[in-house]
Amino acid sequence: MTFNDLGLSAELLRAVSEQGYSQPTPIQAKAIPIVLQGRDILAAAQTGTGKTAGFTLPLLQLLKGKKPVGRRPVRALVLTPTRELAAQIAESVTNYGKHLPLRSTVIFGGVNIRPQIAALRQGVDILVATPGRLLDHVGQKTLDLSQVEILVLDEADRMLDMGFIHDIRKVLALLPRQRQNLLFSATFSNAIKQLAGGLLDSPTLIEVAQRNTAAERVAQVVHPVDKKRKRELLSFLIGSRNWKQVLVFTRTKHGANRLAGQLAKDGIGAAAIHGNKSQGARTKALADFKKGAVQVLVATDIAARGLDIDQLPQVVNFELPNVSEDYVHRIGRTGRAGREGEAISLVSIDEQKLLRDIERLLKCKVPKEIIAGYRPDPSIVAEPVTTGGRQPAAGSGKNHPNRNRTRPKNGRNAAARKPKLGRVAPRG
Q1: Are 97 and 208 in a shared domain?
Q2: What predicted TM-score, i.e. pTM, was given to this entire model?
Q3: How many other CB atoms are found less than 10 A from the CB of residue 373?
Q4: Which run of H or E residues covers position 56?
Q5: DSSP states along 294-353
Q6: How confident is the model at residue 338 (pLDDT cuts 50, 70, 90)?
Q7: Which domain range does residue 134 map to?
């Protein structure tokens, strides 16, 4: 199958070709025809499966085939949990829609709101947003959502984890009842099923990977090592194996800053990215990493989803995550779009329970390899693991550092209403 078989317009096929793609991924092949029919979908796919194009391409075609009523209103709304993911989705919309007479913009917190207001006043067809900043605009009356025809909830499970459920309900209350809804999630948890039940109308279920399975193309390995020697081992691996682009995960923001500084002292170009960094600093760090100016990007789980880095060969878990599912999201940063990838975990005696939980989730043992000269000291006694970010029981995200605004205490349960939906736009 090629993109030519999916019913996309010549303008979109041209843009896809210019991006270097000829064959759709499984999620794209399944989702695009259904979305073009104007139907709701509930889709689950691992990160790196191409789901952004799976909703962006048909969304562009549907809007192209139907002229807006009156002044250019927001007709498609894409909600996403993090600023980085919002920026990358907006980039995809721009790239794929470059040959179409459609306007798009992105709004998220952490940056000046005035340029966003100016862009909205000019009129946009497609709006990509994080929930907090979106509601800020609604509160300032700089945004009207009354003519939205298509709603996309991307990384819906992550939004629930981060405590956005109240914000989502407030946004839903602002939208027309008759619209097309596209919900994308890495997993079909009970919370996601509950959200989908109140939001979607006879949705088509699309699933291209088993729940919570690690990417098949990612080679996983655990290197047992004493906690105090992890940084030394990481520097050794980077140097001896000539790694050029490495994404490293820590549990805490402080730990990310400290590790980036230590690597720099070892002569390894490194930058940290996490929720306490300004949006400008995060954008610069990611840009430097993508262009090779920085060799190592040290991140907390804010980057476990939403970072789209082409041909990223290695991901390192400097510290295992507290939540087993986050391990899957972390290693999903490599092995994307059919490429090979490697996930390396540096595991101390303190983290053995976390490792067992991950292996239980994966339903397999992760191969272990002791690096010569770094064999763990058997006399060291395990200590409690320092937590940071997500907790195993997290659902409310009450104090999550990645929020773009304070979560409201109350919100109308718009998701409890099940709207009757029809075809939103003809096939273009």
Answers
A1: yes
A2: 0.65
A3: 9
A4: helix 51-64
A5: -SEEEE-GGGTTT---TT--EEEESS--SSHHHHHHHHTTSS-TT--EEEEEEE-GGGHH
A6: low
A7: 3-212+406-416
